[in-house]
Automatic annotation (TrEMBL):
Keywords assigned by UniProt, alphabetized: ATP-binding, Kinase, Nucleotide-binding, Transferase
One of the Pfam families matching this protein, by short name: FHA
Organism: Mycena pura
Keyword Transport attributed: no
Residues covered by region (Disordered): 432-503
Compositional bias segments (type: Basic and acidic residues): 477-489
Binding locations of ATP: K175
Protein's UniProt name: Kinase-like domain-containing protein
Upper taxonomic lineage: Eukaryota, Fungi, Dikarya, Basidiomycota, Agaricomycotina
Length: 503
């Protein structure tokens, strides 16, 4: 008879798996990472192997590393548990197959099956009921404890409301998301803090109560911002790099860094808060279908979508380095780093990511900066990810090394006015396709916009018919391309090459 045995005896279990049948033992869960399978080796996505609790299941339908359970380490209402499937024969939660490398919530009472969904006669029944010492039941509503106020943001991965806790009267932000965000394992002064979590629709929708940040997004630093100096940008850069370096140290990448997702508090001490972790994932576990392709997206992210045969692990924390480089370039120059040299097939042709071998970086816009400031941006915007500086290394760059943060005032810096107050979006509406929910928080006001004439041409194009012929007009603002001109460098094929040529 095959038995389940826990390799490490939990000193203090935060949960356990109780067997449905009688031929296996209960499994105590104590670590933040529990690797379940036929072996005590093989889970390589975390560098700290000592923190992994291994559980052995000896059965023919069980893979070497079948599934991995992650706990965010939080006790109480903010406790979150997820399961990632790595198996060949499948892992089932409440009767639904999780799928290879997919992630699923576990809440108190979930039935988890490792291997065959229906037990086979003569084989061990590896079905368990998950018991969680801290988690909420899936039926408890966020509206029981909080009163929703205005909607302060929305996007492709959720809707954010300002809310008041009924018990204390404190103001929080509540984000309704369609899958657990990795930020739940993160606690840092420059990262928006998690308060508690509620589940809806059998755990498919999550209401996440977050710290409410009274601040402004960096995208509201308009092109006429007053007195934004290199010292201000260095203050922002140090705090952002500190937060992202902390994330990378936890094995997590943000994946969607842009000015909209970085807030600056309105008063001393002026503090950066990184928000919106809808794309954040453990490094090496990226769903390419959810990559948000915009002007801050690393070039290798777009290329990797074209090379479907390559593993998702090709996208690393260096993706965030590119995003920070774009943000710093933007803050220094109030311009995006590169110029479009191609016709975009989609309607957002001026908002797409950098295209290797096609687009040009406008290095001359940084000529007014100090040598060290220019050098850091260049290293972060290296097109070849193998040559790109990591965020941790950026903190040791001469421009940031030894810098003491929280000593620069932003009182004299001008910000664009906020958008008008938004209506309250009922919770039932947040379950709809949120790709249609957009407000000004999702639009970077300083990105290169499409001209009015170009937009009118797009609107005049016949639907479903032949596209009208158009004459491409060279942009007058783009400097002439001169071979060897250091101000205007074309990213050549030596860095990355496209698999297919754009027609």
């Amino acid at each position: 008879m095959s038995l389940a045995s826990s390799i490490s005896t939990p000193p203090r279990a935060w949960g356990y798996l109780r067997p449905v049948g009688s031929d296996v033992e209960a499994i105590g869960l104590s670590g933040v990472v529990i690797a379940i399978g036929r072996t005590t080796r093989g889970y390589i996505e975390r560098e700290d192997q000592a923190s992994v609790q291994y559980v052995v299941l000896n059965g023919p339908a069980v893979s070497n590393i079948h599934s991995v359970i992650h706990w965010n380490g939080r006790e109480g209402a903010a406790s979150i548990v997820t399961l990632t499937d790595y198996s060949m024969n499948g892992t089932f939660v409440d009767g639904f197959k999780v799928g290879p490398r997919n992630v699923h919530h576990l809440y108190n009472g979930s039935i988890v099956c490792f291997g065959c969904k229906v037990p086979i006669l003569g084989q061990t029944d590896f079905r368990y009921i998950f018991h969680h010492a801290f988690g909420r039941s899936k039926t408890e509503s966020v509206l029981t404890h909080y009163e929703l106020l205005d909607c302060v943001g929305s996007g492709a991965f959720g809707v954010v409301h300002r809310a008041i806790e009924k018990k204390s009267g404190k103001v929080f932000a509540i984000k309704t998301a369609f899958r657990t965000m990795t930020m739940m394992v993160l606690e840092h002064e420059n990262i928006c803090k998690l308060q508690e979590v509620f589940f809806r629709l059998d755990g498919e929708v999550v209401d996440i109560v977050l710290e409410y940040v009274d601040g402004v997004g960096l995208h509201r630093l308009g092109s006429f911002a007053g007195r934004l100096t290199e010292h201000h940008v260095r203050e922002i850069a140090h705090q952002v790099c500190t937060a992202i370096s902390y994330m990378h140290g936890k094995g997590v990448l943000h994946g969607d860094l842009k000015p909209n997702n970085i807030l600056l508090t309105r008063a001393h001490p002026w503090t950066i808060k990184v928000i919106d972790f809808g794309l954040a994932r453990v490094v090496g576990n990226i769903n390419l279908q959810r990559v948000s392709a915009h002007i801050y997206t690393a070039p290798e992210a777009q290329l990797q979508q074209l090379r479907l045969e390559n593993p998702p692990g090709a996208l690393t924390h260096l993706w965030d380095s590119w995003g920070i480089g774009c943000i710093l370039f933007n803050l220094h120059s109030f311009s995006h780093p590169f110029v479009r040299e191609s016709e975009r097939k989609d309607s957002n042709e001026d908002e797409g990511p950098f295209e290797v071998g096609i687009d040009y970086i406008l290095w001359h816009l940084l000529d007014h900066l100090s040598t060290n400031a220019r050098d850091l941006v260049r290293r972060l915007l290296a097109v070849d990810p193998h040559e790109r500086m990591t965020v941790a290394a950026a903190l040791h760059h001469p421009w940031l090394a030894g810098y003491e943060p929280y000593n620069v005032s932003f009182a004299d810096v001008s910000f664009l006015p906020p958008s008008p107050a938004s209506r309250i979006i009922p919770l039932e509406e947040t379950v709809a396709d949120s790709d249609t929910e957009r407000d000004e928080m999702d639009v970077d006001v300083r990105q290169v916009p499409a001209s009015k004439a170009k937009r009118r041409r797009r609107q005049a194009q016949p639907q479903g018919g032949q596209r009208r012929a158009s004459t491409r007009v060279k942009k007058a603002s783009r400097p002439d391309k001169t071979p060897g001109d250091e101000r205007h460098v074309k990213a050549g094929p030596g860095a990355l090459t496209r698999r297919s040529k754009r027609r």
